[in-house]
Design brief:
The complex is a heterodimer of chains A (about 675) and B (about 400). Chain A is α/β, with parallel strands linked by helices and about 675 residues long. In chain A, helix 4 runs parallel beside helix 6, helix 11 packs parallel to helix 12 and helix 13 crosses helix 16. The longest helix of chain A is centred in the first third of the chain and has 18 residues. Chain B has 22 helices and no strands. Classes of the chains: A alpha/beta (about 675), B mainly alpha (about 400).
């Protein structure tokens, strides 16, 4: 089990066939063992105010009301708000530079405005809060980049304005370069970046601004707060090259991206996984800060906003985020407008209402920060994600190819299924180093290049495990070798899916089923040496497993992930979902990177932070129903306690149950016998 | 002397090819064909409209909005483009103001398009304009008194304003308008629409099976008098013919003779207690009498057990539970129905109603939107407007 207690972790038996070693059925315990005996808490004596390795912050926008003018940029009294931040133990506040306010005339800087910015930075420093400064941002209200002397030229590409931007950046950085409260420089937000029309222009702009910062401040981190997925989806601009030059990346979900990939309520179903999915996909070897967290619209009740905040905070911590920054502190006081017109880049919904009264979400933030402070991330480390969902290069294909549109949805469904199998999983892209992973899932792709097939073959030959679901079209000849199947063509679309298990327990506890599900393709497979694990109702192979070199390759004959995504992602047929979970879970388990803790509730996400003498286990309920998560460990659990302290309950068993409220979370400190 | 040339076969125009492919659900090749058409004529409103519809079929709303917007720019009278644009806004969510404008425009271009009024109402309701939304749904019902979704929306609006008790009759009425319960009865009876007309009553032979099928087929075509006549012949042969009694019960039910329907269904069940058609009719008949809700609930519970692959028994069970104010159980049943059939509009509205009683407004609103999603997909309205537009209409 995940602990370092008493030396290295015992290796799991590398069983063959792939199935997990059979264990005697263990009785499921619904609740922590009856009448737990109080045990002395194991909490260290002094707990920090907040977790230094997982900062939580908030964006502090310059205007709070639509009636404010651009010149009111941070003109309000901000002490009360900053006191509130300090009380909530926030670590970061994000401030926005207004070019219009700072440089009202060409080359003439308003010292009063710069002083105002300094006052904010000092106020943050006095409260031990760090500042993330964003230079070029748009909120559709404060006109921060609309310099009147710009004569409507595009600040992203106009040579003269670019010079002025460099001058502004250097002036601000120069003023604050010795200021310890400045945490990092952020070149632009996504609303500003969405105005770029080409990747080249964006990359050149980011390089120029970065260079401008570096000339003055060679040390401090620089970033551009755009999410590579959402920006590409909205504009066709691929910012990855620019982000690779940054010291850390950012990730967030835009309203438009959410509507594309998982339209629906924020607090249940696929929508609850989107933030973490993008977080994983943004990580390109860099720490990723989850920013602009918050409901994108006014549709949600305070309780739903709170549930959403809780879900994102826990998901961020459980998925290796470098921290979280909320979208807005205070609700924007809007004018009466009929009908209400909402721009996707408007920033409206905050953590407190327009009068400063805290909303339920603010309470969630405070509670989370206090909880996270009790997890020492230098002592407890998240188990590595050695399984990755591969986002194929076809994601960047433009219309009329639909592969670029289907790809992210299939990947999200695949990611969710892996999470539901409780496999520690991340997202990789074709140009990433594949050897960083042990298991690769290639979900419902239309086509891969021959070169990519060769890389996958080499990956499997060298001991990797591959799960591939057929996405349509022709397959590379290498498939015959790697998967041990003879591809005989595409049988076309079907309105239903059947499964008959030929080899029980080889790919997990599969069950036969017949369900209505629109599957767009079905690969007809001939015998080529692979073991047929399951077939359809007519005996055509549905799941196969093959050993190739030192690795294993599982083939799913239908694009199951795409079928889930294009059907009703909120209620895909349960037996089909179960099958996918089984396949992912079994392949990962056999490769030694399966679920660290068995959990009987697929909708509960589990993360294990491995420590020396104890582990920290975080649980997050992705559904809006109550659930009891039955956890089964590899060895007997001695005690469990809430990480925040209090009495520990003795367990003395490998299994126990944790009741979770709708969208609820639990953080447990676990010791072993 | 000259050699005879073989007649040249003309390759179909890319747009015709695209239309053909789109009608047959081949989205990807259709998109490629549309792009080929747009390469020749970039501002062709028909090609752009078709592209919008194809993007909508794949749930790619941003792309659909862009294409439909360009189509409308090219031809402001292009009704199918308005439909695609409005649906794209609604399915995207959060773009209600734009949606309102589009449905208003479409209602002007095609004034008798019921769906435009229903969608218009839903967009208004989502924006908080409840009174205007109710007006829009009433207008839809004026145009088509049998539009179940307009009635459901009115019931949901009543629930929001005045609570469950006031809303229940609306839900019942909407349920009656919904053709799904008739479809369920015939599915359970094994009668399908094969495109052939029902047999002529005069030509039906004396064989029981033949008569039973004829009675069912005639009832399917709503010729209740002829169906009842054949049932009479069957019952003369065997007064304890449970299946014939079930069809008789259905015929009575459709004639609003609820007591007679109950009597026939009970008689049928006395002969065969597991006959699904009889259970179905009995439940529906009980459900029509508000005082018999508890009975209806038990009957639907039994039906849900024996026909567990069907969504509607769970929906009807949930509706009776709603009437009994057992909201948690009703929610569970509605959810089961949605799991069995995500496109069940009636289950979505019912679930929305329960969620509203729990104060989960945004989730309820999403269920209403999801109902609209499936209802508008089922209608295939786009092709009606497309044919009219292609034929020179709006």
């Amino acid at each position: 089990m995940p602990t370092k207690k008493g030396g290295p972790r015992p290796m799991r038996p590398a069983g063959d066939p792939v199935a997990a070693p059979k264990k005697a059925a263990k009785p499921r315990v619904e609740r922590p063992s009856p009448a737990p005996e109080p045990v002395a808490p194991v909490e260290p004596s002094k707990v920090p105010r907040r977790n230094p390795m997982f900062p939580v912050g908030v964006a502090y926008w310059p205007l709070d009301a639509e009636t404010d003018a651009w010149s009111d940029w941070y003109a309000r009294d901000f002490d009360e708000d900053f006191d509130e931040f300090a009380d909530a133990r926030l670590a970061i506040v994000r401030l926005f530079v207004s070019w219009k306010a700072l440089e009202p005339q060409v080359g003439q800087y308003d010292d009063a405005a710069l002083d105002r910015l300094e006052d904010l930075v000092v106020a943050a420093r006095e409260r031990k809060i760090q500042v993330l400064v964003t230079f070029f941002a748009d909120d559709r209200l404060a006109e921060m980049v609309d310099v009147p002397w710009g004569k409507k030229r595009d600040p992203r590409t106009d040579a003269y304005l670019l010079q002025r931007e460099v001058a502004l950046v250097q002036r601000v950085v120069n003023r604050f370069r010795s200021e310890k409260a400045i945490f990092a420089w952020d070149l632009a937000n996504e609303a500003f970046a969405s105005g770029f029309e080409s990747t080249e222009a964006f990359v050149a702009w980011a390089a120029m601004m970065r260079e401008a910062v570096r000339e003055v401040d060679p040390e401090r981190p620089v970033t551009v707060s755009v999410d590579p997925e959402t920006l590409y989806r909205a504009t066709g601009v691929d910012p990855r090259k620019a982000l690779d030059e940054c010291e850390f990346a950012t990730s967030h979900v835009t309203a438009s991206y959410r509507a594309y990939v998982a339209e629906g309520p924020l607090t249940s179903g696929p929508a609850t996984y989107v933030d973490a999915f993008l977080l994983r996909s943004a990580a390109r070897g860099l720490p990723v800060l989850l920013d602009e967290v918050g409901p994108p619209s006014l549709d949600n009740s305070p309780a739903e906003e709170a549930a959403y905040a809780r879900t994102v905070l826990y998901a961020a911590l459980m998925n290796r985020s470098a921290g979280v920054i909320f979208r807005r502190f205070r609700d924007l006081d809007t004018e009466r407008r009929e009908p209400y017109f909402r721009d996707p880049w408007e920033v409206l919904v905050g953590l407190v209402d327009r009068h400063g009264r805290p909303k339920a979400a603010w309470g969630e933030v405070k509670q989370f920060v206090r909880m996270a402070a009790h997890i020492d991330l230098s002592r407890h480390t998240l188990l590595p994600e050695r399984t990755a969902v591969l986002m194929a290069a076809e994601r960047y294909h433009a219309l009329p190819s639909l592969a670029g549109l289907y790809g992210p949805r299939s990947c999200l469904q695949s990611y969710i299924s892996a999470k539901e199998a409780h496999v520690p999983v991340t997202v990789a892209r074709e140009d990433d180093e594949l050897t960083a992973h042990t298991v690769l899932i290639v979900p419902s792709v239309f086509s891969l290049s021959s070169e990519m097939w060769e890389r996958l073959a080499s990956f499997v030959q060298n001991g990797g495990s591959l799960v591939y679901s057929y996405g349509g079209g022709e397959l590379d000849p290498v498939v015959r070798e790697v998967f041990g199947v003879e591809f005989q063509g595409d049988a076309g679309a079907r309105r239903s899916l059947s499964c008959r298990v030929a080899q029980p327990d080889m790919l997990g506890p599969l069950k036969p089923f017949d369900v209505p599900l629109d599957v767009p393709h079905f690969a007809l497979l001939g015998h080529g040496g692979a073991t047929v694990v399951a077939t359809d109702a007519k005996g055509s192979p549905l799941l196969t497993l093959n050993t190739f070199g030192q690795g294993r390759a599982a083939f799913i004959a239908v694009p199951l992930e795409r079928a889930f995504a294009q059907g009703d992602p909120w209620s895909p047929p349960a037996p089909a979902k179960h099958m996918l979970r089984c396949v992912y879970g079994a392949v990962a388990r056999a490769a030694g990177c399966g679920a660290p803790v068995a959990c009987d509730a697929p909708e509960v996400e589990v993360a294990v932070f491995n420590g020396d003498s104890d582990d920290v286990v975080l649980l997050l309920n992705h559904s809006n129903d109550k659930v009891t998560a039955g956890l089964t460990f590899d060895r007997a659990v001695g005690t469990i306690a809430d990480v925040r302290g209090g009495g520990a309950a003795s367990i003395g068993d490998v299994s126990f149950g944790v009741p979770l409220d709708p969208n609820g979370a639990a953080s447990l400190r676990v010791t072993y016998e | 002397m000259s050699a005879k040339r073989a007649p040249k076969t003309q390759a179909p125009r890319p747009l015709d090819l695209a239309e053909d492919l789109a009608r047959n659900g081949h989205v990807w090749p259709a998109v490629e064909a549309v792009h080929a058409a747009l390469a020749v004529e970039p501002d062709d409103p028909k090609a752009l409209t078709l592209l919008a519809e194809l993007m909508l079929a794949g749930d790619f709303y941003d792309e659909a909005i862009a294409a439909a917007g360009r189509a409308i720019e090219a031809d402001p009278a292009c009704a199918p483009a308005y439909l695609a644009l409005g649906l794209a806004y609604d399915r995207h969510g959060g773009m209600w103001d734009q949606s309102i404008l589009v449905w208003q425009e479409l209602a002007e271009v095609v004034p008798d398009l019921v769906t435009a009024h229903v969608q218009f109402g839903e967009a208004l309701a989502a924006s908080g304009f409840d009174e205007e939304a109710i007006d829009a749904w009433r207008r839809a019902l004026e145009l088509d008194r049998s539009d179940a979704r307009a009635m459901y929306n009115l019931a949901v609006a009543a629930l929001k304003r005045e609570g469950v008790a006031t809303a229940l009759p609306g839900f019942r009425k909407a349920g009656d308008l919904d053709p799904s319960q008739d479809e369920l009865f015939f599915r359970l009876a094994g009668i399908e629409d094969d495109g052939e007309p029902a047999p002529d009553p005069a030509e039906v032979g004396e064989d029981r099976t033949e008569r039973l099928f004829a009675a069912g087929a005639l009832a399917f075509e709503e010729d209740m008098i002829a169906a009842a006549e054949i049932v009479r012949l069957l019952l003369e042969e065997d007064p304890d013919d449970a299946e014939a009694l079930a069809i008789a019960a259905y015929c009575y039910l459709k004639q609003e003779a609820v007591n007679e329907a109950i009597a026939c269904a009970l008689r049928s069940l006395a002969v065969n207690s597991k006959l699904q058609t009889a259970i179905c009719v009995l439940g529906i008949a009980f459900g029509k009498r508000p005082g018999l809700n508890r009975h209806a609930s038990r009957v639907f519970q039994a039906l849900a057990k024996v026909a567990d692959h069907e969504a509607l028994p769970h929906v009807m069970l949930a509706e009776t539970l709603l009437g009994l104010q057992r909201y948690a159980q009703a929610k569970a049943s509605f959810r089961t129905a949605v799991e069995i059939d995500p496109s069940c509009v009636r289950a979505r509205f019912g679930l929305a109603a329960v969620l509203l009683t729990e104060g989960r407004h945004s989730e309820a609103q999403w269920q209403v939107r999801r109902a609209a999603y499936y209802d508008t997909k089922r209608q295939r309205l786009f092709w009606e407007l497309w044919d009219s537009y292609s034929g020179g209409g709006a």
